[in-house]
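Submission checklist for the structure archive. All mandatory fields must be present; incomplete records are returned to the submitter.

[x] Identifier: Synaptogyrin
[x] Organism: Seriola lalandi dorsalis
[x] Residue count: 230
[x] Sequence attached
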Amino acid sequence: MDGVGSFGAGRTGSTMDPITFAKQPQTILRALSWIFSLVVFASIVNEGYVNIGSERLHCVFNKNADACNYGVFMGLVGLLACSFFFLLDYKFSSISSVKDRKKAVMLEIGFSGFWTFLYFVSFCFLANQWSRTTPDELPLNQGADAARAAIAFSFFSIITWAGLTVRAVQKYLLGTDMTLFTTEHMDGGAPTQPYPSNSPEGGNTETTETYQSPPFTESNAAPTYQVPIY
């Protein structure tokens, strides 16, 4: 991780350079996941349903409507999730609270890991239904290319989302350098102003000379009496 601050990001309040952001491995994986989800969604919506001798449309995956619906769901939600995490990644450095950064990283770990599993299920489900599809169900091989594209890019999505999960775990394990944050950043309260220090190392050093003199002075000398001269 290139960041020096909390959870792999820069110091709190810093801004992200768009070019640097675009070159990050996490951004590249996110962009690939967005493209793969778009392909899965568009392939099924555009050519995933065929009309075989009737006005009713059938799913190309063994006429199983659940397979097409599941693929459309994965592609659509994957697009929205990638867009959300794109924005979160770009704004991550500007998050001033350590607790909020930790919550964002944990959210990414949970969702990316869960979505990796769902894409694995999608790949197995679509591949299984496609293997059971007979040529008679797809005259002139209608929708075959779309079905193969949905299966292939579901598999590619497993890799990219797994990579995003690993990157999120790395950010979480990196933790935070608490010296980069004030009390205000950590708990959202007002920063506590320290009292001025009188130690020799402090910047505001007040030196006072202590001198005590007794309020009354006692004199043991005998009083003198002068005889008047006539």
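[x] Structure attached
Curator remark: Helices lie at 18-23, 25-47, 65-91, 98-131, 144-174, 183-187. Residues 18-90+103-179 form one domain.
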